[in-house]
């Protein structure tokens, strides 16, 4: 299934014999061929819960594509289950959690072999909305929080996400991960301890974050060195994820002057090539989508802000991680154009390097 096809909704004509789930049966379904009415009811229930399922899976996996696949697989199991469970939410949450745990276990091996820093795939909008907990949900979606979750075992990560982010009860969590309630409580305690020890800190006032991000991007676009210096923390760092599939201006840069050097080198390239920095919320934090002159996605950028300063700048350049956002620009072509624009490749800060 292509990424363009993922997330478009259930595919009622597809069937599988695999059955999964918990809860007491109800409804009219028999065998693996639910009636038309039953299938319509299941489709409606699934679509209502799809945002929650994706949000659970994405926080466990850190991948938009894998989360979409996990949600689609969850639908296929629900569509062909012998009978509709007593609680669609409990059933579907359990299934998507189990699938995500399995995917994460295999993904761990690939991430160990990843070239350079690994970041989660950027997400512009969390489909699961809860106005009363919007700030909490956004912080759990941040790149910093997802990187911290990488330190947990797959089971710890799943339990933490279900309990701390989505407030599931331990009976539901136990059914979802296939462990006893006491074991899940222990997993939750361990996960919380690890998360608390390294929990990312952000500016408490979200409006203040947005205001400071606006100052950063204004200075970035205008090449205002003094403006940049005023918003960067003394220990600011810039970290970039290219996965070996995109040219890098640097993998890791530390200190305000070095970060400013990199940004100053990029500005004439962006201006000459018609590159646009589009401020957006990325993974619940202030950020931007960087596009070429034709609107293709070159990268995303996120800012961690604390105490009125930008502490961390993270960019994702790996085209594989940007494909779900639309057409991906040819960053190698931009690299060649950049060298022509500068007219010189003598200084490391004046060129993109692989």
From TrEMBL:
Q: Where is this chain compositionally biased, Low complexity type?
A: 18-32
Question: Compositional bias (Basic and acidic residues) at which positions?
Answer: 1-17, 35-44
InterPro entries reported for this sequence: ECF_Sigma-70_Domain, NTF2-like_dom_sf, RNA_pol_sigma-70_dom, RNA_pol_sigma-70_ECF, RNA_pol_sigma70_r2, RNA_pol_sigma70_r4_t2, RNA_pol_sigma_r2, RNA_pol_sigma_r3/r4-like
Q: Which Pfam families match?
A: Sigma70_r2, Sigma70_r4_2
Q: Does the keyword Isomerase apply?
A: no
**Keywords (A to Z) from UniProt:** Sigma factor, Transcription, Transcription regulation
Q: In this protein, which residues make up the domain named RNA polymerase sigma-70 region?
A: 46-108
Report the domain of life of the source organism: Bacteria
Sequence segments annotated as region (Disordered): 1-44
Tell me the ranges covered by the RNA polymerase sigma factor 70 region 4 type domain, including all copies. 146-195
* UniProt keyword Transcription regulation present: yes
Give the multimer and partner information.
Interacts transiently with the RNA polymerase catalytic core formed by RpoA, RpoB, RpoC and RpoZ (2 alpha, 1 beta, 1 beta' and 1 omega subunit) to form the RNA polymerase holoenzyme that can initiate transcription.
Family according to the record: Belongs to the sigma-70 factor family. ECF subfamily.
Query: What name does UniProt use for this protein?
Result: RNA polymerase sigma-70 factor
Could you tell me which species this protein originates from? Actinacidiphila acididurans
